[in-house]
Amino acid sequence: MFLLNVASCMLIILITCVVSGESILCDTCTCKNSIINCTENGLMDILDLWDHSDVLKDATLMHFDDNGIVHVKQLPPSKVRYLSLRKNKINKIDEMAFINLKLLLELDLSYNSLTAESLNPDIFKINNEDTSRPGSLIHLRLDYNNIHSLLPHTFKELSNLVSLTLAGNPLTVIDRATSFAMSSLPMLKILNLSNTSLNELPDHLLHTPRFLEILNLSNNKFTQIPQGLDEAHALQRLDFSSNPIKNILSFPKMASLKVLHLSHMPELNNIGPRAFSLLNVLEEFHCTHNNKLKSIDPTAFSYKLNDGLESELWPQIIKLDLSYNALGYLDSRLLSRWDTLEELNLQGNKWICDCVNQWLVSTLAPMVESRHPEFLNDFTCQEPIEMSGISILDLDHRHYHMRCLDFYNSRPERDGVLLIGILIGVILAIPFTMGIMMCCAKRKNTLSYYHRIFNQNKSPYAPDYQLRETSIYQPTSIITEGY
Buried b vs exposed e over 249-261: b needs ≥16 C-beta within 10 Å? Predict the structure, then answer.
């Protein structure tokens, strides 16, 4: 009986301690379904909580975001699979800090103050005894830190890493050490280098990660398409948006590329002939919000096989987004089959509504209406001026047939203005001309009268009464009478 009472007391004490520990943690953080959320709690050290509760040992998702953590020390054993330490002030991480997190798959260290020196290769070591055992971490986020370059062996413990994000770091160039570090990730499938001030890629950077499928190079300083992209043989998705490229004349061969993003490019004004002719399996093309893009060559996507055949071939594009550019015309030869498109967005362009674009009204507008009517909200004419703002879909509903340019390429919108101008000119010219004629006639009559008088005064055949009145003839008459 005594032993039973002692055991009961010990059990009560143990339960009380556990409940007390859990209450301390869960009063500070949010605890629900193996998820611990300690976001914005003013924490300076994770271990302050870890020492008070066993709940953390069984949690699978942990969020310690938006705190004041500066130093990450070695963490106790846990079953955590996802650990987020984003938006802290971390500038130091102890070696083997995560070695006890055997099941850790995703680690988010973004928006901190990490540098190349902060990322000692041994930080990511998982098993100190068996150095041949690869780490379990597959997703690592290091975006928006202060990383200018990487040490060559930064990722030596992460041979299974599938996704790496370095976006928002001031890399500027990918030096040899950084290139070596990235090349040591043979299983890498996703690489994000957006907003890193890059203007070129090393030639063989993408050769070693032979399974790379997704690459983000957006918001950088590339002025031309890097030819090193042809090393990414398995690449399926490429985001090259927000780069200051003016003209796209050719893309390197990427035999597996299915999705291409070329949006928000402030200088892009032209996509030339055969620009994408080496992207033969392209399925999605997103080219939007390029304010200077006025033309896309009709042959931009078409290609010919190397067997001497003259026939044109096109990739089977199923999603085409050309919204919010400066396009005035769209050639029907751009794609081989428009009816197989699953998505088509042509909103927000400067469409010229003449007979050349009649197929936009008759073919594309009803097709978009049947599949994605929300893409027609800003699908309107900009020219001619009398049609500005008119919905192209409304033109289809009215079975409207648009006018063509005349022989001299005069715009139809100017015809009305020209005719009105001519009519006003004629109306004003008639009274003006009549007034001039009347003035001239009146002046002519006056001049004729004076001219006649003048001529009569000078004529030798003037009447006798006029001769007699003039003194010049009087002496002559006197002399005559004398004889």
Answer: eebeebeebbbbb
Residue 374: which residues within 8 A CB-CB, separation 6 or more? none
Cβ-contact 152, 185 below 8 angstroms:
no
Element (H, E) at 176: helix 176-183
Residue 417 has which token pair?
């203005």
Quick check: 59 and 76 in contact, CB under 8 A? no
Query: Rounded distance, CA 72 to CA 65, Å?
Result: 13
Over residues 230-258, the pLDDT tens digits come to: 999 899 999 999 999 999 999 999 999 99
Q: If DSSP codes are grouped into helix, strand and coil, which group holds residue 31?
A: strand
Q: Please identify which residue in the block is written with the tokens 């991480």.
A: 93
Residue 206's contacts (CB-CB under 8 Å, 6 or more residues apart) are: 212, 215, 228, 229, 231, 232, 235
Specify the pTM. 0.78
DSSP annotation of 362? I
The helix, strand and coil proportions of the chain, stated in percent and rounded to the nearest 5, come to 30, 15, 55
Contact 117, 91 (CB under 8 A): no
